[in-house]
Amino acid sequence: MYSYSEFDEAFVRTRVAQFTHQVERRIDGSLTEEEFRPLRLMNGLYLQLHAYMLRVAIPYGTLNPRQMRQLAHIAQTWDKGYGHFTTRQNIQFNWPKLSDVPKMLSALADVGMHAIQTSGNCVRNVTADHFAAAAADEIEDPRPYAELLRQWSTDHPEFQFLPRKFKIAITGAAQDRAVTAAHDIGLRIVKNDAGETGFQVLVGGGLGRTPMVAMTVRDFLPVEDLLPYVEAVLSVYNTLGRRDNKYKARIKITLHETGKEEITRMIEARFAELRPLFGGNDQALLADIRAAFAPPAFRNAPVEAYDAFYKADPVFRAWADTNLAKHRNDQYAIVTISLKAHGQTPGDATADQMRVMADLAERYGHNELRVSHEQNVILPHVHKSDLPAVHAALMQAGLGTANVGLISDIIACPGMDYCALATARAIPVAQEIATRFDALKLEHDVGPLKIKISGCINACGHHHVGHIGILGLDRAGVENYQITLGGDGTEDAVIGERAGPGFAYDEIVPAIERIVLAYLDLREGPEETFLQAYRRVGLPPFKAALYPGEGNRDAA
Amino acid sequence: MARFTPKVVTANALIEGDVIYLTADDRWTRLHHEAELIEDEAHAQLRLLHAMAQKSVAVGAYLADAKAGPNGPEPTHFREVFRTRGPSNYFLGKQAELV
To answer: Which Pfam families match (chain B) (predicted)?
Structure first.
């Protein structure tokens, strides 16, 4: 794993010292809130509904056990004993006091972490496939490139005042687990006909009020051209992007207003100017970074114990069937730890749970942890013979829920339980859906189904790419939930279709139940997933189930 | 002419970030029902200015709709109701601290 260089360390410490003084000056009255606000946002500190919130970056979702323990320590010492893992592979602390935040940042710096560029109109945390370097279907580990992008974009003087925030996601696998098509820049590692490695570059994806799937602006970019090309995209956006209207300021709008052809021409022209200026330093740096991501020393040991346990223990088997993914090494598995126990808050972990996960990573997981955009934690490298022990420890800590990829593995943003921008609650809707389907004992029959819930139009909960998406709105002073169907966040990304009029808070769980029961009725067999069935039959049968009694009336 | 909807002045406390309300006797309270219920538009603007001037105590002051209740002002919009108690997923925030 990458460790901070002296330069990184000095940079982060300097920033903590600066912010410490800024907080002091805010508290003693030398700074007004108007002066202080941009300074605190530069350091990931928001003021939410009930308290401040500190958003900490977890670069490309990778953590070591020491860092996870430090997050636990921070949660326990200066917060209320838990943290919330987000859809951007960050962690948020919901209850810090302003006067404690410098101490929290200092504790983060002790383990090479920070909250820089987790807010504001700059390049945000670069996210990556949470199965990176472990997945069987991967061409190359994307994280060295993500780290290169992190170093390049951190405090980059040209890109601190972009028209709007800018999000980059990267994957090295054929199966896109990083939702690259919904990012300002999506990078997919591919091979060309000559067998060389490069990137397919997507630009202009995004959810929010104007959801759009990204367009490919380069089918194949040689890996050594990554920084000059990304810089060219940023540079064109920085020039053309609209600063007059917040709602039209993202690059997706720039792309649509300028046209793909013209913007591609401008990017290529700028790229031609920038490319010679890099002079190979980036490649020397990349080589050093790559060395830091060398694969762990995998064990070679028998796996029979796992096979026997799998046959003998139904609880373990259910967990193994849903929560394990295929590792590139046959003796290993990728473990997804569900932070979605039925009835609990999606993405939340207590300090004790964080410590358990850190211990397991240390003992059985080659010291690696990942945070997924689906708000779970991953142990990417576990030898199969260790899985029964890992499962037993997870069960004891309330982390053994066997539901990854199922209906209760829901993404939900904090919504109006925490967020100042939210228009409705999201968390209790997720809790109630999970509890309801657990009571019905249906979720394993239903099979793979992604529900994603956002508490406002900004779509932090990715509802547009949920197989079932739920958007909470404020309709005339009452919470109201709109449903979209058929969304998909993978390599075949699709924005879901609006099903029709929204539902009240106490109607939304029954509405979801009607959709799922309709799917069970119409599917051709258990092999046909919800998404496949939806693609076959389209919206009408689900609409009929959602709005019974409306007969032939066309609500559209 | 539309009638003025009664208001309270609310903000977040500078250090804790907790929700606070302006009282008629110029204190800040954590309790909604202790807030001053403002029934006149001009007076509301004056009270808001007064709140906004207290930069070392209150952050982001604004006027929120409210109505008279048996124990004092009550919120009318669900967002303001949530602000009087805290999140619904844990017993934390005001609902825990004020019992």
So the answer is: DUF2849 (PF11011)
